[in-house]
From TrEMBL:
One of its GO terms (biological process) is DNA integration. PANTHER family: TRANSPOSASE INSF FOR INSERTION SEQUENCE IS3B-RELATED, TRANSPOSASE INSO FOR INSERTION SEQUENCE ELEMENT IS911B-RELATED. It comes from Massilia timonae CCUG 45783. PROSITE patterns: INTEGRASE (PS50994). It comes from the Bacteria. Residues 63-228 form the Integrase catalytic domain. This is Integrase catalytic domain-containing protein. One of its GO terms (molecular function) is nucleic acid binding.
Amino acid sequence: MLEVLNSPRFANCAPAAIHAQLLDEGRYVASVRTMYRLLQGCAAVRERRNQLRHPEYTKPELLAVAPNQVWSWDITKLKGPVRGTCFHLYVILDIFSRYVVGWMVAERETAELAEQLIADSAAKENIAPGTLTLHADRGSSMRSKPVATLLSDLGIAKSHSRPYVSDDNPYSEAQFKTLKYRPGFPARFGSLADARAHCAAFFTWYNQQHRHSGIGMMTPESVHAGRAAEIRKLRQATLESAYQRTPGRFKHCVPRQTKLPTAAWINPPVTEKKAA
């Protein structure tokens, strides 16, 4: 049977075609399935056409143990006044403190606007070369040459999510959800000025007033400025004072504050536990 399958006239034929041709000649050698099994047994079945193969993308594993070590940035759409129109919100977020270090609302998405925002944010935060990694998804602006050149000039390392893996950029995704699910977020914005005014108020609240569960119920600004430990001590003193006054309200011990996170991961290694 292998002699028939490996004969010169069938050298470039698939088993199904060989099977059909032999039947046309009045011959039955074996079923198509048996032909495949025999050919596979002698390593004669493989893809010979040129195939487009997707490259292997490494899972990003990024760790921040202090502010301004890893930033995450992304762009989301805000619906405009009429159907089919939108504005583009650019946001850069520090993953350790959750502090929004830069944002802008524009009528379009371009690499040049992203470049401007990144440069302004790095200057405002006094980022020294070699100290920061900027993580983003694989959007056209994120992978653009102007942005890549800027990051190289500033000494900022770049990192990208894997294609179609939303979990590789969780901090930006969560921040956008906080924005869009907050009461008062409009279904549409009447103008670019309206969108900018709304976002200005939101980011002021988010940075300065929002008690974030991922950073021990601190505000992003307090963590980013290094005041979280001091605030935690004051909170603990208040709890201890309450316990001394009315110990019966507590379960036989002094209540304790939520611990402050010591690290923020994007895709922690299997052996590591992601900080809350």
